[in-house]
Amino acid sequence: MPRQRALMTVCFVRTGERRYAVRAMLPAGPVLEMNPAPGFDPWVPHDLQHFIVEKHFDIAGAVFGRLAAGGTAGTFHAVEQGGASREASRQRRKLAARDQRLMPEQSEDYARSERATYVCWQDWLEHSDDPALRARGAEMAKSARSLAASMAPAERALYTPARRAAVRQEFARLSRQWAALGVGESLTESW
Fold it and tell me: Global pTM?
């Protein structure tokens, strides 16, 4: 039976020439933010890569699945919406406690997400029309093959040619949007 997800909106904001933030908004809950977010890339920043891969491969216990379930993924914090800092502090403690209780059986999903993101990112780069991006992909190819070979057979079986092509399309679509953003602009996707 497919897992049900709460509708969550995720906003990737270009906050500087080489900086970005990620905001997650659930219908009933605070706005959560990671700012600054790690791994800026002018084509697809690291957390946008994770978003694409976790959504496509339905990785529930990694960053975005935990946010959708009401957690913080250990890296997001509630954005203060005005009001008392005491209330904001209480909210942070409450969210952190909830995050600790969420999906303990899925802690392997963080590692799975990292592996999937690296393999899919390398695949997208390798298939790029841009020679510089293809060169980056070629530099990563040996590591990506090794990482894929280390996966359990059931995990490796998910990387069919059709699924890789679908992920590449999503990387290409969001890369075009991200690369066109100026500082202060953002792109928003639903989870």
Answer: 0.87
